[in-house]
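debug: dumping io for the single-chain case to check the tokenizer round-trip. Nothing else runs in this session.
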Amino acid sequence: MAIITPDTPNSESADENRQRRRFACVDGVSTLYKFTPFDTPTRRRWVTEILQPPHRIYFASPSQLNDEFDLRPLMRLPSGIAERELRALLITDAERHWRGQSSVLTAEQIAMCRLRLTTIDMEKFERETEERAHRRIEEHHGVFSLACDLGRIEMWDEYADCRRGLCIHFRGDASSPFGYAQRVLYQAERPILPIPLPEDLIVADRALLTKTAARWEKECEYRLLLFPEAVYDDTGMRLGGRYGYFPPEAIVGITVGTDMPPFDVEFIASVARQLDPPLLVSPSQVDRAAQ
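debug: decoded output
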């Protein structure tokens, strides 16, 4: 998959890359927001890991997201093509992948793979390819989701434990790693990836940035993506496993929910005071009763 960073692909300029990928820093989003509950030891630890050195975020796998179809695109063989021609296309694509593998296949293994592609039922092949892609995405891909609007009551209710949680503010400009979060697309149907995938995989990039239910569009979501070839070094973020380690100046504030328990508010405030420079902790102005 193409590297989703400010790095410039050989085929396009930096400006073209940024415009096509809809980075937050290109869209003029100065601040991005992470809504989160604060109601379990795991979530409290997760928030503390963001706020305290070494400052790290967690990239969630597809199975940890709240939409069962998120990051699970459909995969379909091309229609309107003769089966013999289709099988030849699949064999050619497979040979391209075999040449790029680090471990060389034996002549016998290649012959067996070719034979399978000439005999396997195409519906079964399509289904197996989709299942294999989903396993790979689950194991090697992840997202860190952010919103661009602090004032939506729906976000506080759904993602911040009905205003008992908090929201962490991140800089969205080009000097912050969070400025290279990408805008999520919304459409009525699940994204479809072609089999075989095109070499530049731009369509695969888009599938990881697409949500299929209209109810999610209110989120105005941006995502940092994790995948095997991802490199964020030039943005100031270092990757390690499912974590991204970022500079402290990328955080610019904290808002606590209107119904956050006082002892949790004080805990967040004490953490914020210990930072250098200290972070401002503000009460949310969003209240269901006022809506």
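debug: round-trip ok. Confidence is low (pLDDT under 50) at residues 1-19.
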